[in-house]
Amino acid sequence: MCHSDPRKYYYLVLFNIINNFNMSETEKKTNRRDFLFTASYTIGAVGVGSAIWPLVHQMNPDKAQQALATTEVDISQVEPGKSITVLWRGKPVFLKRRTQDEIVEARSVALKDLPDPQKDEERVKDGKDEWLVMLGVCTHLGCVPLKDKGEFNGWFCPCHGSHYDVSGRIRKGPAPKNMEIPNYEFVDSNTIKIG
Fold first, then answer.
1. Which of 3, 57, 140, 160 is catalytic?
2. What pLDDT, on a 0 to 100 scale, did the predictor assign at position 27?
3. Annotation: CATH topology of 65-194
């Protein structure tokens, strides 16, 4: 007999009809009960999954936040000694193009004089020492510090009096840590990608 022989299916159907005819009533009830239980559990599982899915899905970030995961900034117009502020993930980011004097000043500070010791070289990218990129949020209570203010020619937080130097390191006041450096990279000589 060939695989596509229709007699094969005819015999299979005939066998099932005879087998069902010879089944006792209790066997038929058992099969029917098993089917009803299986169908009920399946429908219940689909219903629970349908109810839970919206709750899980609402925890995902919305499309606007996903779009802000990275941002590219044109830095070609920033002069030495000047800074710009951009918004990234709802927070301000300070981008400062430091002068050579500011770099020397930041690197001449002894680490023992810093509440949160960190070298200036650790806060910038290699070969791009003039560019300082950091979150513009005070590490004390989250205020936005003012640029080019304070006792150390950096940033000053007017809320509680924290002073940061030209490298964004805490020098005086209640802030416990230096301003945070986000993940960033130089796409080219005129563009920085934050995030």
1. 160
2. 59
3. Rieske Iron-sulfur Protein (2.102.10)
